[in-house]
Amino acid sequence: MTSPAAALAALRPRLPSPLTEVADDRFTRRGVRLLLKRDDLIHPELPGNKWRKLEPNLLAAAEAGRRTLLTFGGAYSNHLRATAAAGRLLGFRTIGVVRGEELAGRPLNPSLARCAADGMELRFIDRATYRRKAEPEVLAALVPEDCLVIPEGGSNAAAARGCTALGRELRGAAEVVAVACGTGGTLAGLAAGLAADQRAIGFPVLKGGFLGAEVERLQRAAFGGRRGNWRLEERFHCGGYARTSPELEEFSREFGELHDIGLERLYVAKALYGVTTLLREGAFAPGTSVAVVVTGAADYYSSSR
Ligand SMILES: Cc1ncc(COP(=O)(O)O)c(C=O)c1O
């Protein structure tokens, strides 16, 4: 029988992911180098932070003899899609608990249809119960016996530990590393994996100012305490999750055309827009290299929306 690690290796992830320099006038004029860490190229079905966060959870599930993965998400969750794909590729049963009871009677949107096509069982629950999904009595009603529960967005201690590899791959490559944040697991691990002379900036795509405490909680769970030099830039959510602004749209279109790269709009575009604004504000001294993590692929996500 193939081991779980061998089954994952057989999916041939592109690791370490490529690091490419982008010649952008706005940066070169100020003596700053812009690098893109192309995590979007790791795997076509588990791109970006999806691979880095799911891999350790899949290994843990297989090693503990769990044959079912249960996780949570909204109707357009990238994480639900990636979990469903991982289940199909590696032979796990998958259950997706979806926020919004009212969706149960409607035709599935393309993202949920993709989950279902990958064999995911979808369970729709009302928003009040969904908010209480981490409580033992709510979980007990949802979870079958041989099941590994992965939290919303895939961020748990194992995921944060998985993302340390991203930081390690970037050692020596840039003084500053920028990443978009949703649930905070990627930043928690990335910052822990960087060298002592590097710093990470997280760009939350949600409003609310709750993320700093969450990244600290994840670092405590994964590493026993705060790790690495990181901070959040809360100004670039552009109205909140899946919201945009004319400035962000214009920036993304222009950057895409200039560099012939499609930017994933919900996360990556906001981090890159934030970095470019910080550059304009003089936040990076000449001679600094800034690496922006491309945590998701444009076509993967646009095809689900
Ligand atoms: C493309 C993309 N980038 C960044 C993130 C944010 O990652 P995290 O939830 O670990 O903060 C997500 C969500 O998982 C995502 O789908």
Structure report:
By secondary structure, this protein is an alpha/beta fold. The protein folds into 2 domains: 184 residues, Rossmann fold (3-Layer(aba) Sandwich); 79 residues, Rossmann fold. The strands form 2 sheets. The protein has a 6-stranded mixed β-sheet, sandwiched between helices. It has a 4-stranded parallel β-sheet with strand order 5-4-3-6. The longest helix is centred in the N-terminal third of the chain and has 15 residues. Bound molecules: pyridoxal-5'-phosphate (PLP).
Which properties best describe this structure?
alpha/beta; Rossmann fold; four-stranded parallel beta sheet; 41% helix; globular; disordered C terminus; binds pyridoxal-5'-phosphate; TrpB-like_PALP_sf
Structural classification: alpha/beta
Query: The CATH topology of the largest domain is what?
Result: Rossmann fold
> Quick one: CATH class of the largest domain?
Alpha Beta
Order of helices and strands: HEHEHEHEHEHHEHEHEHEHHEH
Instruction: Label the overall shape.
Output: globular
Strand percentage lies at 15-25%
Q: What is the number of beta strands?
A: 10
Proportion of residues in helical segments = 40-55%
User: Could you report the average pLDDT, rounded to the nearest whole number?
Assistant: 94
Task: Supply Rg.
Answer: 19 Å
Uncertain stretches: 301-305
How many domains make up the coordinates?
2
State the helix count: 13
